[in-house]
Amino acid sequence: MTTPLIKWTNWVGNQSFTPSEVATASNEADVQYWVKYAAERGLGVRTVGTGHSFTPIVETDVLLNTEAMRGITHIDAAKRRVNALPKTTIADFGEPLWAQGLALANQGDIDTQAIAGAIATATHGSGLNYTNFSATLAGARMVDGLGNVVVVSESENSEVLPALQTSLGLLGLMTELTIRVAPAYNLHARYETLKYAEVLNNIDDYIHHYRHISFFWLPTDASAKLYCLDHGGADDCVVKLYQELPADAQLPNLPANERVDRSYRIYPMHYDPNFHEVEYFLPIEHTRDILHEMRKLMLRWLPLSIYPLEIRTVGADQAWLSPNYQRNNLVVSISGEPGADYWDYLRACDSLFAEFKGRPHWGKLHFMTADRLDRLFPRYNDFVAMRRRFDPNGTFLNAHTRKLFL
Ligand SMILES: Cc1cc2nc3c(=O)[nH]c(=O)nc-3n(C[C@H](O)[C@H](O)[C@H](O)COP(=O)(O)OP(=O)(O)OC[C@H]3O[C@@H](n4cnc5c(N)ncnc54)[C@H](O)[C@@H]3O)c2cc1C
């Protein structure tokens, strides 16, 4: 079924386009039908998670609405694997996994993304001992660019898995995903508001002794409210430190700035759709230099850079296009107001990140070219070859991805 032409807009409103067709795909056979339909007509086809990416990676001719393809299909508690349909949100995993003594190994700042969208773009939380979502993908069913169903697994075609794990929807449209999960755990969260210098003094301890460290550095008194933070003024850092506790642990008499709860209840925070985000991944060993240079740069560019700077860490993985490919990273996120003319500032940030061999977040604004990707990702050419193998006619490419992965 197709619906009349409508403009599609992402969550924050900085990307929009009008597909030539919006088609409903309720199951794998429907996905096959529409991919063949598009391929035969020389049209592009793509699908969307929940539209939380800031980049133009959804734009296409035939946009598949896979709303009905949501839900957990199987939990294997012994093997710690869960199968889910692509539109299952991260929040959807919380209760059913907990009931089986399991949990997602890590989560990011929100839990509303679709699992396929989060995996396609290497969405991550924080913690050097934990990977992004992509690296937890253990297998998938997908429809390739010719409309064929391909089953990717660790045992059958293991050479495909590290390409598929972070693939921006360019190898195929995933119709069911198998994800590695962890034993259920509680988190003991501590929230602190500290001066920048104090955080810098303790940064190694935070990074290496906590399961999760993340913080927002606030360049001005007005910054906190832009990210819905309820406290903190200029040069403060709003810090989150989490330690893992067993699923049945209770801690009585906690101070007001501490909380213990199930992992999936601790992670999510609230954002208003009032910002654009640029995010780069930088080698962890340069943490102090990067934090120092980034603060200097933001202060120089005030008042264009009044949004909080978010800092996190992510552990290395093996996914070819993952920003964490064989590298532990510090993650730096910078934001600005949609519509504001702050591109010179963002380019200055990009130049700084380039000095440290910064790799981009695929769902967030970046300034990559094919040449830069080739230098930054050792398996970039292998990924392009794999993309051509599964989508020889470029049915999944769009203007944004064609420039990067043709
Ligand atoms: C408020 C906010 C908070 C965020 N917090 C974090 C965070 O903490 N950590 C982080 O790393 N990122 C974060 N992000 C970025 C976000 O997680 C990524 O952009 C993610 O891709 C969004 O998921 P989605 O379901 O909205 O995917 P979409 O943006 O809808 O799609 C992303 C990509 O996935 C592809 N795709 C979707 N479904 C399929 C499928 N079935 N098969 C193949 N490809 C598919 C799409 O075609 C597209 O290319 C945040 C974004 C926002 C707006």
Task: Tell me what you see in this structure.
The structure is a single chain. By secondary structure, this protein is α+β, with helices and mostly antiparallel strands. The protein has three domains: 2-65, Uridine Diphospho-n-acetylenolpyruvylglucosamine Reductase, domain 2; 72-183, 2-Layer Sandwich (Uridine Diphospho-n-acetylenolpyruvylglucosamine Reductase, domain 3), CATH 3.30.465.10; 185-365, Alpha-Beta Plaits, CATH 3.30.70. 26% of the residues lie in helices and 26% in strands. The chain has helices at residues 28-40, 90-99, 115-120, 161-164, 196-209, 223-226, 263-266, 287-300, 343-355, 370-376, 380-390, 399-405; strands spanning 2-3, 8-9, 16-17, 21-24, 45-47, 62-65, 72-76, 81-84, 102-103, 137-143, 149-153, 173-180, 182-183, 185-195, 212-217, 236-246, 258-262, 276-283, 309-314, 329-336, 359-360. The strands form five sheets. An eight-stranded antiparallel beta sheet has the order 17-14-16-15-19-20-18-21. Helix 8 (287-300) runs antiparallel to helix 9 (343-355). The protein is globular and about 60 Å long. The two termini are 31 Å apart. The relative contact order is 0.15. The chain binds flavin-adenine dinucleotide. Flavin-adenine dinucleotide binds next to strand 5, helix 3 and strand 12.
